[in-house]
Amino acid sequence: MKDLRRYLVLKYIQYLVLSSPSAVSTFLGLLGSTYSLLLLQSARVSSKSTTVLISSIAKADILAAVCFVSDMIILAFDVNISSTAFTSALLQNLLTANTHTSCLLLSCIAFEAYLITFFPVESRHVRTVRNAKWTARIIWILVITECVIFLMEDFLKASSMSTFIGSHYAWLFHFSGTVAYLLRSLSYFLGIFLRIVNVYFYYKIFFSMSNR
Question: Could you report the per-residue pLDDT of 93-125, keeping only the tens digit for each?
Fold first, then answer.
């Protein structure tokens, strides 16, 4: 569990402290996720709600790994891509899915730590493996839906579909653009909110443990 705690600290720094991901933080995060997935297979690690959420965070880094490897291949072999704009948008959407999923799951872990510290008995029926699995699934569904909308907007822009889909379907181009804009705005403010909430949770936990 000590190694998993260190992994969570790394992930908090990567997604909720740093303003933007770097190659170094991404690489370290991928190494940490690989090690954590191997560690979670051990019989010494019991199946709890926290470990379920940690496992989902580690699996989310598969998306970052795909982007990382793709960039390495493109740079190393000078691969020519037929649709550069769309491919770039696709990789960016994978990174967005990875970031948003990880931030939401990390916030769930922070909330769970808050419940364990202040309401250990009252929250026991909430902190179950079943609820953790459902929470992870809902987060994945929401993030995938978000990225599909972003990808639809990028596809319409890249292929210039708005020029030949006809006036009857022109609303699709404008609708996807409007929804994507609203989602990006919501994601921005939600990111700020999650940072504040996480700081509050761990601030309360830290001073509670200090007083004890």
Answer: 888 899 999 999 999 999 999 999 999 889 899
Contact predicate 154/86, CB 8 Å: yes
Q: Which two tokens stand for residue 64?
A: 């970052």
- Domain of residue 36 covers 1-210
- How many angstroms separate the CA atoms of 8 and 1, rounded? 10
Cβ count within 10 A of residue 70: 16
Q: What is the DSSP letter of 20?
A: S
Burial class of residue 24 (count of CB atoms within 10 Å of its CB; 0-12, 13-18, 19+): exposed
What radius of gyration, in Å, describes the C-alpha atoms of the chain?
20
**In one letter, which amino acid is 149?**
I
Contacts of 81 (CB under 8 A, 6+ apart): 74, 87
Q: Are 134 and 140 in contact (CB under 8 A)?
A: no
Give residue-wise pLDDT tens across range 24-60.
Answer: 888 888 999 999 999 988 877 778 899 999 999 999 9
H-type alpha helices, 22-128: 23-40, 49-77, 84-118
Burial class (CB in 10 A: 0-12, 13-18, 19+), 72: exposed
Q: How many domains does the chain fold into?
A: 1
On the CB side of 178, CA atoms within 13 Å amount to: 6
